[in-house]
Design goal:
alpha+beta; GMP Synthetase, Chain A, domain 3; three-stranded mixed beta sheet; globular; FSCA_dom_sf; iron-sulfur cluster binding; iron ion binding
Length: 83
C-alpha cells in the first residue's frame, strides 16, 4: 500500500470517524491497490442496521469525490474468527 495514498484516504476517514465512534464503530483501510480502496467497518458498525447502501454510498462519495486517483471504494465484510 502506498503511504501517500493511505494518508489521503485516512484524512477523509478522520472526518467521518466522530460520527462512527458515537455508535462505537469505525472504518479501517484494509488495502489500496491499483486505484481501488478496500475498507471494513469495525465495532458497532458491523452489526448496525444503518450500515446499509446509503452509508456505504456516503463513504464512496466522500473518498472518490475528493481523490481523483480512486477508481472504486469497496466495503469488505468483517472476517469471522473461530477458535
Amino acid at each position: 500500500m502506498m503511504e501517500k495514498e493511505y494518508r489521503e484516504v485516512e484524512d477523509i476517514l478522520k472526518k467521518m470517524r466522530p460520527a462512527l465512534k458515537d455508535h462505537h464503530g469505525d472504518l479501517k483501510v484494509v488495502e489500496i491497490k491499483e486505484g481501488n480502496v478496500y475498507l471494513q467497518f469495525e465495532g458497532g458498525c458491523t452489526e448496525c442496521p444503518i450500515v446499509d447502501a446509503s452509508l456505504k454510498e456516503v463513504v464512496d462519495m466522500a473518498i472518490r469525490g475528493n481523490l481523483s486517483w480512486v477508481k472504486k471504494v469497496e466495503i469488505l465484510q468483517p472476517r469471522l474468527h473461530i477458535g
